[in-house]
Amino acid sequence: MKAIGLYRYLPIEDPNSLIDIEIETPAPGAHQLLVRVKAVSVNPVDIKTRAPKAGIETIPRILGWDVAGIVEAAGPDCHLFEPGDAVYYAGDWLHPGANSEFHLVDECIVARKPNSLDFAQAAALPLTTLTAWEGIFDRLMIAPEPEKNRGKSILIINAAGGVGSIAAQFAQWAGLKVIGTASRPASIQWAKAHGVAVILDHRQSLASQLQQYGYTNVDYILCLKNVAQHWHTMAEIIAPQGKICLIDDVYAPLDIAIFQPKSATIAFENVFTRPNFHTADMTEQHHILTGVAELIDAGVLQTTLNERLSPISADTLRQAHARVETGEMVGKLVVEQFPE
Length: 340
Hints:
The protein contains 10 helices and 16 strands. Helix content is 28%, strand content 28%. It is of the alpha/beta class. It folds into 2 domains: 2-125 and 273-336, Medium-chain alcohol dehydrogenases, catalytic domain (Quinone Oxidoreductase, Chain A, domain 1, Alpha-Beta Complex), CATH 3.90.180; 130-268, NAD(P)-binding Rossmann-like Domain (Rossmann fold). Helix 3 (126-139) packs across helix 9. The strands form 3 sheets. Strands 3, 5, 6, 7, 8, 15 and 16 form a 7-stranded mixed sheet that branches. Strands 11-10-9-12-13-14 form a 6-stranded parallel sheet, sandwiched between helices.
């Protein structure tokens, strides 16, 4: 089968940073699905994984953690899906990624694709949807019930990115006042169209901007980018007994004691925790994506797809990586359709 992989970790401008390869089509294990890949999204995790560093792979490394496709075959112990089902999912870190014609995945982290979306629109969602849902409802422990959140606010730092675009929709649906950071006209427009009520410029003081809008603090913060840059600001603006969720990498030690006076909660969200550690509640990701598909089909939520490229090939994926690598993506970029 066709696949796109790497042997060396090179700058994306290098034609060998991602290459077209042919590998054997795998067979599904007991609880696995073999999915015919129709579309894949490119995320910052792809960029970080592929980034230049030492080391050479003896077996080609295949990236890709956002998938929409059709079940080709199901393992003997599968009971949630059967061949022909259209599905979407994020996959895990322990197996090859989905930049291939066929992909193996444990069925318990897969859900049926929203009926109202095409494959590219669906592929834009899984990784960021799971990150946002787990961050808001599991880590920040916000109840998905509007009546319990009246008068409460959340600040989403990087509200126009892939996670921010769906997180803002979840927060609005849950009844929160959604405040988000964005700075460029395109990102401001996108954030507002996806549920952000109040826009702050991350290049200026967030505290003073909040005060201009009548807020002395916020109940929750979902920090999706530049944790160190916003660390002291978050300590300043979080409400007493407020909660903060971080998803971005922390590259140096940070002083957590500054949050002690407010008894603030600091939590991390990693979308791969459940599948990587085979947690007892691993199937929760199946349930999350299933519920989100229902909300999308009901018109409550919308896809965060903003850019499409085609076909799925090394050349196209290098273009996609270069685009995401700029750090200026608004919404999600998806690559669709393997060449015949």
